[in-house]
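BUG: 3D viewer hangs when loading the predicted structure for this chain

Environment: internal workstation, default settings.
Expected: structure renders.
Actual: progress bar stalls at 90%.

Input used:
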Amino acid sequence: MKFGLGLPTCTAGMMYPVPFASTDDVVRIAVEAEQLGFYEVTGNDHYSTQRYVRGAFATPPDFYEPLITFAYCAARTSVLRLMTGVVVLPIRDPVPLAKQVATLDRFSGGRVILGVGVGAYREEFEAVRPDLAGATRAELVEEGIRALRMLFEERRATFEGPHHQFRDVEMFPKPAQAPLPIYSSGNAEGSIRRAARYGQGWLPAIVDARRIRQGRALLDRYAREAGRDPATISTALQLVVCLADTPAAAREAFERSQLFHHLVSLQQSTLQGTDVDSYVAINLVGTPDEVGRRVEEFAAAGVDHLCGLYFVGNTVDELLAQARRFAREVMPVFPEREVTA
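Structure tokens produced before the viewer hung:
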């Protein structure tokens, strides 16, 4: 099992209070993540502040662009993977994005994992890309993935999509990794289908082991239909972690955190239909022993990577205290191993 840590790139006002992490703090967390043995750090992606965040905080949060952040972190680390969790593909132009990602992969020595998704907030998409406001974001993601693959892998790339076009683009350098791993983010069937057809990973968030098995069965079927080996496609689940000496103390800390309030906000979008008790039951909230048992359930369901874990804490020091305890008391029970879905 691989474990990752959610880097606070665009999390202030959402998963964490405002203000939360300075630029120095973000790098410090990445460096310590590598020292603690985490496989990757994952950075999320926002261009504009969401309406509910504007209503909750008088001061706008700092949203750090993840690829630029990773470039700085790459220079301070040596083996830590740098994973976007996720790049919101509908607001990105695939040509400059491909150039940025390939360059980062080269400078980091092949450490980039590109998680891509629709994005949780349509309001942000419409604010940033009003020219595409009538487009279906899922179609933009699929179009973007196909365009990126072409730019990463073909000497000269020409693409004619409904929303993106480019002609005879000779983009070098190519990424250090071939193929550069692209993970399709989301719990919906379309996200699973995109992972099966084009990706090296499926990246769901806050779903239980039963839904992982269902999604994995779909993924395997779609992969075989596309002529791909399902065993080459990872399942990388993203969850919240809150450890304490008792279950009650863990739940209390979770429910008073800004991260919990963020999850509640997602009930209208990516986590529609998930209630409060389910949040606690699905996420890694509890004692280290309880959390370890839950990790084992996910491993048995086919998860081989718990990516970009968000550790509960309303300060950077609280986040790091949770990450240290997790690395000390949970991670050693799960040496990295291959898991067959």
